[in-house]
Amino acid sequence: EPEVTQTPSHQVTQMGQEVILRCVPISNHLYFYWYRQILGQKVEFLVSFYNNEISEKSEIFDDQFSVERPDGSNFTLKIRSTKLEDSAMYFCASRSITSGSLGNEQFFGPGTRLTVL
Amino acid sequence: GENVEQHPSTLSVQEGDSAVIKCTYSDSASNYFPWYKQELGKGPQLIIDIRSNVGEKKDQRIAVTLNKTAKHFSLHITETQPEDSAVYFCAARGYSSASKIIFGSGTRLSIRP
Question: Contact, B99 vs B93, CB < 8 A?
Fold first, then answer.
């Protein structure tokens, strides 16, 4: 069964450093998303991406964040200068373009745990 | 803004009993309501979903109900089993199928043997 994969599973970084979180969405999917989950809190939307551009972003997704689809398979989230409060689990998700009920589901990856020291 | 409220935050039921989790949403334009199960160390996994033109949907031991007028929706798990223990999230999505998903705060369900 196809699945979303994410690397690394755990990233530890120093405050102020740049990090890049990587995701490989399901191959025929065209909508891509990043969410984050601070420990013990709800999953929060960060950004959605379609047709090589951002479709929607939340207030959390400020100028320190960027997303990119550098090739036909990867989807990345970059945090330019990490802050302590960026420590969270980051989930990538993807969705197909199929209309109807089959196209509704966003498939989530296993997440990358980011720890900022 | 858009918000999804979820109750209870923790729920403990005896194996074999039923579990009910309730959610409310604020955006009347929401038309798709997925439920996710999150096991330790994993991402959210869709277990059932319901669209706004349907009042109820069932899949084996899991059922969801939706009251669009009251903006309430609920998850019902019958004949609970130990493997049902996990965190469950309700969620709502806006009118556009590409829209973000707004998650509830989660319910930690524990099944007592």
Answer: yes
Residue-wise pLDDT for B10-58, tens only, equals: 999 999 999 999 999 998 888 899 999 999 888 899 999 998 888 999 9
Give the count of beta carbons closer than 10 Å to the beta carbon of residue A52: 7
Cβ of A43 within 8 Å of Cβ of B100? The answer is no
Residue B29 exposure: Cα atoms within 13 Å on the Cβ side: 10
Question: Hey, which residues 23-82 in chain A have their CB within 8 Å of chain B?
Answer: 31, 33, 35, 41-45, 48, 50, 55-56, 58
Q: Which of B47, B101, B102 to mutate to test the interface with A (most CBs of A within 10 A)?
A: B101
Distance CA A61, CA A51 (A): 19
Q: Would you state the structure tokens that stand for residue B17, as one six-digit string?
A: 């009993």
End-to-end CA distance of chain A: 37
Chain A hits for B103, CB-CB cut-off 8 Å, are 35, 42-44
pLDDT band at A99 (very low <50, low <70, confident <90, very high): low
Tokens 């960026």, located at residue: A86
Mind spelling out the 3-state secondary structure of B10-23? EEEEECCCCEEEEE
Indicate the pLDDT class of residue B94, thresholds 50, 70 and 90: confident
Residue B102's pLDDT is what? Answer: 92
- Find out whether A4 and A93 touch, Cβ atoms under 8 Å: yes
Structure tokens at A79: 């945090």
Q: Phi and psi (nearest 5°) for A84?
A: -55, -40
Per-residue model confidence (pLDDT) at position B1: 65
